[in-house]
Amino acid sequence: MKLVLHLNDFDWPIPTAEVAGLLDDVASIVEGSEVDGIAVADHLWSYPIMGGPETNCLEAYTTVSYLAARTSTVRLLTLVTGAHFRHPAVLAKMVTTLDVLSSGRAWLGLGTGHYEEECTGLGVPFPPLSMRYDLLEDALEVCLRMWAGERGQDGPYTGHHVDAQRLLNLPQSLQRPHPPILVAGGGERRTLALVARYADACNLQPTEEIPHKLEVLRRYCDNLGTDFERIERTSSWNFAVDDNGSRTKELLEQLRWLAGLGIDTVVGRVPDIERRLPLERLADQVVPAAAAFSSRP
């Protein structure tokens, strides 16, 4: 099992002027360990369970680009970008640029989006869910077309809500045929079908339903003639560690449970990360132990 650090709570109890220094230290600790990557939540306001709109929130792609300059091996992604947030061609260009500047470490993380309050508050469009699913499919198709060949697809594209005349993309991404794609969500009618058709990874809620969701995904893959085994199966958890080891032991038991359900990679927030020590303990004590957990026969 691989572990990815999730930065989704930016309201650290430190002065704003010290935020860059904290990110420098986080990058250094992660880079010097076997932590597999860093994922950044893509919101404009903090989500309610992270403190809500009145707390600090960093913009995702600016943050992940900063982290790219301070790391050299770990993969970098958002978990995840709502398809309504950015025009697909702009998003493809952003991820391409991140991939080029990080020497081929960018992933595209996409979902339908879910935080209406931040959008209505800031005037960002938040269409109904059915339209957001259409936008998600448009984004997946546009990004893949822009990553096709050496220049992208020069021909026109007409999707559900996107009309483009020339999907030219220069420079191209370093990762070929394209940066890996993660689609988040466990919706059995549309989301998992999109994973099977377009994605390299899924992200499922950490529940007992995971084996069922994976079986649904397998059926979609079989119907499309795609390889189910190629899809990285991810989920989320809270990476809580402590001084006396009791919470660390509990975390390892939870990670073993997720591996038993079929999860390959867990993405998690480290509480009190501003102290640095919890992240160091995760890297030193949890990551090596979790590496022995097998999710596949």
Write up what this structure looks like.
With about 300 residues, this protein is α/β, with parallel strands linked by helices. The chain has one domain (about 1-290): Alpha-Beta Barrel (TIM Barrel), CATH 3.20.20.30. It is about 40% helix and about 15% strand. The protein contains 9 helices and 13 strands. It has helices at about 20-30, 60-70, 90-100, 115-120, 130-145, 190-200, 210-225, 245-260, 275-290; strands at about 1-5, 35-40, 75-80, 80, 110, 150-155, 155-160, 165, 165-170, 180-185, 200-205, 230-240, 265-270. A 9-stranded parallel sheet has the order 3-2-1-13-12-11-10-5-4. A two-stranded antiparallel ribbon has the order 6-9. Helix 3 (about 90-100) links the parallel strand 4 and strand 5 (about 110). The model has no long low-confidence stretch (mean pLDDT about 95).
What attributes does this structure have?
297 residues, TIM Barrel, 9-stranded parallel beta sheet, two-stranded antiparallel ribbon, globular
How is the CATH topology named? TIM Barrel
As for the number of domains, it is: 1
Q: In what order do the strands lie side by side in the largest sheet?
A: 3-2-1-13-12-11-10-5-4
Helicity level: 25-40%
By CATH, the architecture is named Alpha-Beta Barrel
At the first level of CATH, what is the class? Alpha Beta
- Per DSSP E runs of 2 or more residues, the count of β-strands stands at 13
* Number of helices in the DSSP assignment: 9
Distance between the termini: 13 Å
